[in-house]
Fold each of these.
Amino acid sequence: MIHSTPFDTALVAHIRATARQLGFSQIGVSGVDLRSAEPGLLAWLERGFHGDMHYMTSHGLKRARPAELVPGTVSVITARMDYLPATAPDDWSAQELGRLQQSGEGIVSLYARGRDYHKVLRGRLQKLADAIVLQAGPLGYRVFTDSAPVLEAELAVRSGQGWRGKHTLVLNREAGSMFFLGEIYVDRALPESVPVQDHCGSCSACMDVCPTRAIVAPYRLDARRCISYLTIEHAGSIPLELRPLMGNHIYGCDDCQLVCPWNKFAKRATLPDFDGRAHLSGQGLCHLLDWTEAQFLQYTEGGPIRRIGHERWLRNVAVALGNALRNEPDSTLRQSMHDALQRRAAHESALVREHVQWALEQNTTLG
């Protein structure tokens, strides 16, 4: 346990005040002894639940050992930033759930409709670190925003940001789970925050709603089945048995968060960076499949979607169109979907062609 000085306590108060000015919602401090998390991490990796995310294993246990990842680290400052768009209506979760029933519309996760959070948080965390140096003097530090082998959720929980929900995301009683996390590893001993209790109780809403049953047990996620993983991290062919379960999700999935009772307390973002872009919300799948690579790059500029590239974008949209074709009762709309897929049937990418062909095969009413 770190024994803090009055100056250290005052410094943390200063950090919190500065963080608020930068748009952060909460600041916490964790120690660096994460040994108790190592068995769970190793078991998760040994089961192969990380899928193609090989970076999860490339750094070994450094993920759970901050002082090895960044030598000299004594404390970790954790930061939380709400991202629910400021324009979100009071019944935002009900509206988002309703959009999942509109099979002809492509659904992008809420967090991905605005600016790339990596860029937003990294810049703000750097400004926060600069402010700490001005207040406290020379400081060894490193900023992280979901960009290195860091156990973000574990550090967030240990620093009082919330508790780990059964879907494995961090939950906060005052803010639900609609927030981003970031960290600053520092070589200065700071007073640690007090962790909070788990408040999930007997609720299993997140587990019950998951379309692909990726939450294989409470607090255990098989990423290989997660729609967010399949549409973002996975670079190859999407498993045949999972395609029909993906519905109209084309980038990420918010289902487990939309049904979580704690998200009735989700807070609106204070930064305009997370406001949704028109091209990424309420768009028909046929229109999205017709995007040229130039249009894809234009509409996703500065956002997180761009990193998957046009090829995987078309793969994802093709799967969603296949699911829409199978369920759409209107013959005119089915024909439009069929025609849109046919326009991509001879695409130069074998990956795109494969998923387009699968999608066409879901249309059992047209030749």
Amino acid sequence: MGYGYADAFERGLGGWLSDQIAVVGSGDIDFRFLETRFAGPAGARDAFERLIADIVGIVHPDVQEVQANPGDWGIDAYVGDLGKEGEVHIWQSKYFIDGFAKTQQGDVRDSYSSAQKAAQENGYNIASWTLCIPCELDGPMLTWWEGWKKRMSKADTLTVSLETAGRLRRRLQASAAADVRNHYFSPLFTLPPTTADPEEPRGLEELVDNTKYDGALFVRQMDEAGLPETFAAREAFFNAEILEREVTDKGIQLEVSALSTWRVRVSSTWSTAFNTACQMSGDRRFPQLYGEVLGGIETNHAQEAASLRAHVLHGVGLLHQAVDNGRAGWVRDWRDVAKVHLARAPNSASSPNNEEGMEEEP
């Protein structure tokens, strides 16, 4: 019958890793960087799940991801058929960034059991189950893993595999993985050429007072979404306010127009991601939305930033301004949150805060 999907993953991607290693262009592959790239541990956990699916997708473009609603059938990514008498190959990601010990053993057992239970209840067969983690195992844990893997493989007649940080890193260093690697670890920004002498770029100012904007709507919207770390958002908002004042005070029409265009682009980036999140889940909170929107601005708004000699993080600040003006939010009922907040405190962080800003978004 030849080899299955699990073997193909090993042979199709891993088979040429040893003689086709590419050097990462602008940064090391450090999985903890995902916490910076995607706004904290929760965003990093979601990003790691997507990263695993994207790595699998290099060899298997038909890879599918499963939305948790409320459970995910013990599957993060799979290839195959989930229908009755179908066969699937499962990849389970666990963001064990701080190492692997007894607690993690329990998590692995639970995930494997969930996958087997869902398969039995829905009538499909698991041909392979691969655990993907961003760390390495020490000697005792490797001994445990080998023993557990053999027991599960024999009991359930399937292939059980492990992809650790090192194996994942080497997969990402392969030439075929360049796009995936750059998206997660080395995002590139293309600046438009210019023939004029460059002016001094606008820098970012440090926000000294971490209590500034405590009563702001954009902070409230983050609280509603369960995003506890708000200081970076406050600092981005602070810098966007500075940028806006400078552009307004100078009154250079090209810069005024460029700032207006950037605001529209920021709103479009948020709106697209928000609509997608609403389609994917009926929940009030969207765990991936915040990281995806900020990542989209930082990755795709370099041209807007360059037109104002600004930093892409100014664009993140413009987004928080939009939230503060009641034009966006991070939960399904963000409009209700904004209306209640503005009714209690008509002036939020930006002054004046205009209730005409409460326009209907998609």
Amino acid sequence: KKLGAVSLPDELKATTRLVRTEWSKQGKKARKALAHCHEQAGVEHFHDLRKASQAYGMHLGLMRSLWPSAMRAKRADAKRLVSILGHEHDLSVLAAVADREPDRFGNGERLALLLDAIIERQQALRAEALELADEVFSGLARKEGRIVGLLWRQAAK
């Protein structure tokens, strides 16, 4: 696969540090996006959380051989979170189109019903996403990074 093109340090200690550090950075980025969603609940914040969740899921997939059962379970939750956030984003796009081109959706009453339905469903999806994201990203970034680093070092022996 494309991993053959990845350049990692030759020394195990340096590679372990790199893996641990990058894993921790990704976790911090995800938790920052999650905090913004809790604080401000803006469209862009949920989109950032979706991107961070996608990256986390990819990292879990790359590292699945280190601890298959744990990585598989965490990845399933990350994928579910990405799916929920994807549906939420689709509704944001639909709302933006309805706002920009209201004539496409019929009379004012029909548009109002559509926007009410979008808002109601978005609120439900956001609540579900936040609850799941709180679980997915509950581990401290540094702690999880250390665990992945230890697993990496053990697998290299």
